[in-house]
Each structure stands twice: as C-alpha cells, then as structure tokens.
Design a protein that fits this description.
Layout (H helix, E strand, L loop, with lengths): L12 H12 L2 E2 L1 H11 L15 E5 L3 E5 L16 E5 L2 E5 L4 E6 L9 E2 L2 E2 L4 E4 L2 E4 L2 E2 L10 H4 L6 E2 L2 H12 L8 E4 L9 H14 L5 E4 L9 H7 L3 E3 L7 H7 L1 H6 L1 H15 L4 E7 L4 H12 L4 E6 L16 H18 L37
Helix pairs in contact: 10-11
The structure holds iron/sulfur cluster (SF4).
Length: about 375
C-alpha cells in the first residue's frame, strides 16, 4: 500500500512513514477507535508509562515498528486534525498519510497490566512494551533529567527500593502473560543513591540467576560500584545500555545536570571497559534526537561507534509532566537527516544502530535490519491485532 517514493534515499516509504509518525503523531478515526477499544477491553490503548512509550505500538508493512503518538496521551504536540490517520477497514488497521500509507497491526498491552500480585500492583514493578518487559526496581530517581517523567511523576521524596521478591514475581507473571508474553527483559528506571548500589548488584545477580535462558539487559548510569562486569558476564547478562542522552556539554548542563556533573568521561570510560569485557554488540548507549543540534548528536554517534558501542537514537518526545512539555519533538527532516548520517557513521565503524530486536525499535530511529537489509526477529513476535 505504501506508494510514494521516499524523499530520503536511505528510507523505504514505510520507514519514512515511521519518521513522520514520530514527528507528528496521528489522529484515530471512529472506526479505528472502536476496533482498538474492542481489542483492549478495560485496558488503555497504550501503557503510556514513560515519555517515549506514550503512543500506540504498531507494526507497519515491511516489518517497520513504530510507537505512534496520539492526542489522548500527548495533547502537547499531537494536533486534533493530525494529517496522518489510523483508520480501519474490513482488512484491519490502516495508517493513511494522504496519498501514501501502510496496513498496520496493533500490539495490545499485556493482560497483567493493572493487576496485582503478592507485593501489590504489578505495574509498580513492571511494564511490557511489545515483546520486552521493563523492570523498575526503584521508585523515583536520585537524578533529575528534564526530559524524563520519572523524577516529576515520583519526586525524590518518594524514593524507595522495591522488594527483590516482588521484582522476581512480577517478571515471572510478565513472562507467562496469556495475552502478551514478554520474551526478554530490561532492568531500567531510576538511578540509585550511592548508598544503594549494593542493592542493585544483588538485584542483578538474583534476576540473572532466576531467569536462565531469558535475555536480560541492564540500562543504568555507571555509578561507582553498581556494576561488576566480571560478575555480570559470568551471570549471563545479555546487553548493557549506558545512556549518554545528550552529547553537547552545554545542553547536558541545561537538561541533565546530574549527568553533566558526573562528566562524559565516566560514561565513555565505562563503555570502553564494558566493550572490552563483553565484546562488540553487547554495549549500547542512547542519544536523544531533537534536544541538541544535529551535529552534536552525530558527534555522539561517532564517539560511541568508534568505541565499538551500539548507538541507539531515541527521538525526543515531550512528556506533559516535565518542564520540556512545550518543546516540540524533532521534525521529520531532522529525524531523516540524523538517521541517514548516523547510518553512514555506523557503517564506517562496522557497528549497527540499535536495538537489534525489531519490536523494540518502536520508539527508536532504527529498523533492526542486517547488512543485507533483512529484518530478523530474535524472539517470537508479539501478539498483534489486525
Ligand atoms: S537518570 Fe534516567 S531515570 Fe533518572 S531522571 Fe535521568 S533519564 Fe530519568
């Protein structure tokens, strides 16, 4: 159905559509809303637990995954008359971009969302996005980044460690979910206070030992003492994500002051050690697109790629809870330029833009294609509604 030729040589038409959706979001026709409501029952259309997961997870044609913002969760930038529409016909969902578009399949939430376990509400511990469950072992965060909703939804006064038994129980439930079983795990969400790094090391040990055979990634600030690379390697950690967020020091000082104060050297030095220990392809780092000049983001991509780390580009999405709520997301043209030039940098250094799991690219500027352009699934695909 995608008919228009891409205006960017690196992008197929459905890939271009993804970038347009990330930039502008979409409206939802009454027919599509009815089909979504029928599919989700009492759950919402989206987990909407984090700035970049606020939209609907869709698989477009050509195995292109997108987290498409909707006005319901992002009234701060998705227009009520958004040009791109999610519609439905007798064959299922359709994304109509006026003269071009794609058939689409919708990825519903896991059935356990909104439920409770032996340690209270399960969503206090975990959320599933497509095929990955994210575990947040901490309430609030010891740091403040102005693009992130966590310190605003849960201010530092609410800071608390969550019981490890509750974390393990919630992971088990997410992995066994009848509607949307998670296939792999990301431990993320919140930086501990220095006195609590031991709790995190213990949590990492326990999760890895509890889930042999399940890929477990860890996304964390490399605080002194929080990572024992030898122990993580022996425990079978799948990948580490050490996020730079923004590369410009001037911009980092404005929007991620704690990370700025730690210094870029802390992050890059740890990435070097982690790549040396775990090998290429197992250490990634996220940069946000749209919060700093394009040249700075690309300098960050170069810095990561030349170290053998995997750059992950995450389009900035203003969260209504944060001070950056009125900063517009990057335009299609910005996204297309960053993608095209970042691909060239990655190729030059023999790395790929991450993540490698196709459904997990729903909120990143990447498509999980191999060097031949094929999309390869690492796990059984998520349950989809057409
Ligand atoms: S360190 Fe991570 S969790 Fe904490 S505010 Fe920054 S981005 Fe959010």
């Amino acid at each position: 159905m995608a008919t228009r030729t891409s205006i960017v040589s690196d992008l197929a038409p459905t890939q271009e559509l993804k970038l347009r959706l990330l930039a502008e979001g979409m409206s939802v026709t009454a027919r599509a809303a009815k089909r979504l409501d029928d599919a989700v029952r009492e759950l919402g259309w989206s987990a909407a637990d984090y700035a970049s997961t606020s939209g609907l997870i869709l698989r477009l044609e050509d195995d292109v995954w997108v987290n498409a913002p909707v006005r319901r969760n992002n009234p701060n930038f998705v227009r009520s008359d958004a040009v791109i529409k999610l519609d439905a016909d007798s064959g299922g969902f359709v994304v109509d971009a006026g003269g071009s578009g794609s058939r689409a399949a919708y990825c519903p939430q896991a059935a356990y969302h909104g439920g409770a376990g032996g340690h209270g509400p399960l969503n206090n511990f975990v959320f599933t996005h497509a095929d990955r469950v994210r575990l947040s072992p901490l309430r609030s965060c010891a740091m403040v980044c102005e693009f992130c909703n966590i310190p605003y939804d849960d201010p530092i006064g609410t800071y608390a460690l969550k019981p490890i038994e509750g974390c393990l129980e919630a992971l088990d439930i997410a992995l066994a979910d009848q509607a949307q079983p998670a296939r792999h795990v990301l431990i993320s969400g919140g930086t501990p206070k220095p006195k609590d790094v031991g709790f995190h090391r213990e949590l990492f040990r326990r999760v890895l030992a509890h889930l042999p055979g399940v890929d477990v990634d860890i996304m964390m600030v490399p605080l002194r003492g929080v990572f024992d690379l030898g122990e993580l390697e022996a425990g079978g950690v799948h990948e580490l994500s050490i996020n730079l967020e923004v590369y410009s020091r001037e911009r980092a000082k404005q929007v991620a002051r704690h990370k700025f104060n730690q210094g870029l050297g802390l992050y890059l030095g740890f990435i070097d050690r982690a790549v040396a220990r775990l090998g290429p392809g197992r250490v990634r780092s996220m940069l946000m697109v749209g919060l700093e000049p394009v040249e700075d983001t690309l300098a960050g991509v170069e810095e990561l790629a030349r170290r053998g780390a995997t750059p992950v580009l995450s389009p900035f999405r203003p969260d209504p809870a944060t001070p950056l709520r009125d900063v517009p997301p990057p335009t299609f043209a910005e996204l297309a330029e960053v993608y095209s030039r970042a691909m060239e940098i990655a190729r030059r250094h023999g790395v790929s833009l991450g993540p490698a799991c196709p459904p997990c690219t729903h909120n990143t500027l990447s498509f999980a294609q191999d060097s031949a352009g094929a999309v390869r699934y690492l796990y059984p695909g998520p349950v989809l509604v057409r």
